[in-house]
Structures are given as C-alpha cells and as structure tokens.
Design brief:
Elements (H helix, E strand, L loop, with lengths): L17 E5 L5 E6 L1 E2 L2 H16 L4 E5 L3 E2 L6 H13 L6 E4 L5 H7 L9 E2 L2 H10 L5 E7 L5 H15 L6 H18 L4 E8 L12 E8 L26 H7 L2 E6 L4 E8 L4
Parallel strand pairs: 2-4, 3-5, 4-6, 6-7
Antiparallel strand pairs: 1-2, 8-9, 9-10, 10-12, 11-12
Helix pairs in contact: 1-2, 5-6, 6-7
Length: about 280
C-alpha cells in the first residue's frame, strides 16, 4: 500500500493564522483562518483544508469570523473545499461561520456550481447544523486502558469489524495499524485511549470492495502530535505479523495517515484501503 504522511495542522506555532481542531464527540473538524487574505495565507489555507478532509471528518466548519477579506477574494477556495467534500464517500458537509452581510458572506451564499455555502452567525449555530447533517456511517468504538494488552483488544475489534463489513482483504494492514496506533498512544500519552473504527465509501454494501475502506482513529489526552515519518521507509520483513514496530510502519501500511489536535488532546488516524487490481 502507498503511504502519504502529511504535515500536521497542529504543528503551527502559537498565534498562527490557521488552526484546525477535531471534536471527539461529533468528529467535526473546525478550521479557523484569521488575518489579512493574501497569497501566503492562501497557500497555508489551501494545504490545511486538504489535510483536514484527508482525515474524512463527519463535517468541516470553516471559521472565517476573523478573516480580513473585504473583496471576497478567498471565496473561490472555500467553494472548492465544499465541492471536494461533496464528492467524498460519504460526503463531508461544509459550513461557514462568518458575520452575515460582509462581501465574503454574500459571495459564499450565492450558488457556485450546484449550491451556495451555508453561512452562520456564530459557531454554535454552525456546529449544530453540521451535527444534524452528518452522514450515517457504520462504526464501532472502544475505550482502552494505557496498557500494552490494549493492542490485542484493538486487533480483535478491527478483525470483527472487517468481517462484519466484508472487508477481510484489509485485515492484515488494519490489524497492524490499529495495534501500532494504540501501542503508541499507550506508551507516549499514557492516558486512556478511544479507538474508533469506521467503514467509509458508498453507504450501500455490496459495491466493489475497492470502493470501501477503513478509517481508524485513536484519541488520547496528550496534545503532543507525532512527527511525520520519512518518505522511503519500507515495511520490514514480517511486519504484518508484528506489533511495536513504530509509527513509521503505519505510514507504509496505511493509504494515508495524520494527526489533529482535539479539545482534550489529539487524534491520530489512518485510512486503510485496498488498491485497485
């Protein structure tokens, strides 16, 4: 499988114009962009929204309340974010928090292609709107102790989920990645760990197995994000039957992986999918 170790939105220094935080309860990611809109901010925002959607959240909230964009030059980018989210399986709804009546709010509210972006006055309104529009997904979760034995529980949970969802071809990689993510959290965070396993892809079962994939998310209570793995690392011999071989192996066994801050710590996630024949 290919690996795509992304840079982490949470790596930004304090005072950064862009922050991204995931809500553990709703799995919605909030992306806040502040400051004057210019080419540099566009580059940062363009990279960060792609990292956020790569995590396949249940929704993406764009907090543009403190973005200085009197000419609405950023509108095209936010419509692009919405279009990308709508094409994902399942779709990721996008909402904006922005003072109504501003040039940007007016521009975003106009349909650009299929529809305009929903704009809300405050964050609570936007959060509620996204929460009630979240797509239904098949999901299992477990709270695990910060103990080495939890890796075995994670493997068993993933095995049961893959068999229930007819995703057995993903099992070797999924078991390895779940084990490593839980082991890493137990060793480095030392807190309780929440493992969430989600089936993504078309909502109907029975489609081609190559259209379905597995999303693994491990939440802990430490804010320290992992370092990206180095490109070029390869799976060591026998890695699929081992545990404790490190996050660099996650970067190779997963289709893509990354990390985001949460309000209580962080989430490290990985996507496991079967490459086309």
């Amino acid at each position: 499988m290919s690996a795509d170790s992304t840079s982490q939105p949470g790596d930004a220094l304090p005072g950064s114009p862009i922050t991204a935080v995931k809500d553990e309860r709703t799995a919605i990611v909030e992306l806040a962009v502040t400051g004057t809109w210019d080419h540099r901010l566009w580059e940062q925002a363009d990279q960060t929204w792609q990292e956020c959607l790569a995590e396949h959240p249940t929704g993406l909230l764009l907090d543009l309340s403190y973005l200085d964009d009197p000419d609405a030059r950023s509108a095209a980018l936010w419509h692009t974010v919405q279009a990308h989210g709508s094409r994902m399986q399942p779709p990721v709804p996008v909402a904006v928090c922005l003072r109504p009546g501003t040039p940007l709010a007016v521009r975003l509210g106009r349909p650009d292609g299929d529809r305009g972006l929903p704009v809300y006055l405050d964050l609570d309104q936007a959060r509620h709107a996204l929460a009630i529009s979240r797509p239904r997904t098949e999901q299992v979760r477990a709270m695990l102790a910060p103990d080495p034995a939890s890796a075995a529980v994670a493997r068993e949970l993933v095995t049961a989920a893959c068999r229930e969802w007819a995703l057995e071809p993903l099992l070797p990689y999924a078991r390895l990645v779940a084990s490593e993510l839980v082991t890493n959290a137990a060793e480095h965070a030392g807190t309780t760990v929440d493992l969430v396993v989600t089936r993504l892809g078309p909502q109907q079962r029975g489609k081609s197995p190559h259209q379905h994939y597995l999303h693994l998310a491990v939440y802990d209570r430490s804010p320290e994000l992992p370092r990206p793995v180095h490109d070029g690392d390869t799976l060591p011999d026998g890695a699929l039957t081992l545990r404790g071989v490190g996050l660099h192996v996650v970067g190779q066994a997963a289709w893509t992986w990354g990390a985001l801050p949460t309000r209580t710590g962080k989430v490290v996630w990985a996507t496991i999918r079967q490459p086309p024949p």
